[in-house]
Specification:
The chain is α+β, with helices and mostly antiparallel strands and 143 residues long. It has 3 helices and 5 strands.
Amino acid sequence: MLLEAFIAILLFSGGILGLMGLQAVSLKNAADAKYRAEAAYLANQIIGQMWAENPANLPSYAHNATTAGLCNFGGGASGNANVVAWLGSASTPGTVVGTLPGATAAMQQISIGANNFVTVTICWQRPGENAPRNFVGLAQING
C-alpha cells in the first residue's frame, strides 16, 4: 500500500511539474505574440502616414535602406519628421524604440522601391535572446 501511494505521489508530482513547464512556455509565447502585434501596429502606423502623404514625398521616408543582414541595416537615417517621431526614444511610449524591447532606430528599416512599393522592417531583441526578432510589413502606395 505504501508503494502504491509513493507511485501515485510520484505521478502527481510529474504532472504538476509538466504543467509548470507548460505555463512558462505559455507566458513566453504570449509575450512574443504581444510584441509581434505591437510591431504590426507600428508598421501599419507608418504605412498609414505614407498613404496620407503626397507620393512625391515618399523617398524622404527611406530609413536605413541598405540591408547587410537580419536587422543589420545601413544607408542613412531618415530626416522625415514623421519617421523621427515614429521611431521615438526609449522614454516615449507608443513609438518603436519606446514600445519594443531592445529596439533601436538603427535596427529599423523603411525602403521605398519601384512603383512606390514600401517595405517596413521592425526589429527588436528581448533580453537574454541571442538573435533579434523581426516583423516585415509591405504596401504599395498609389498616388
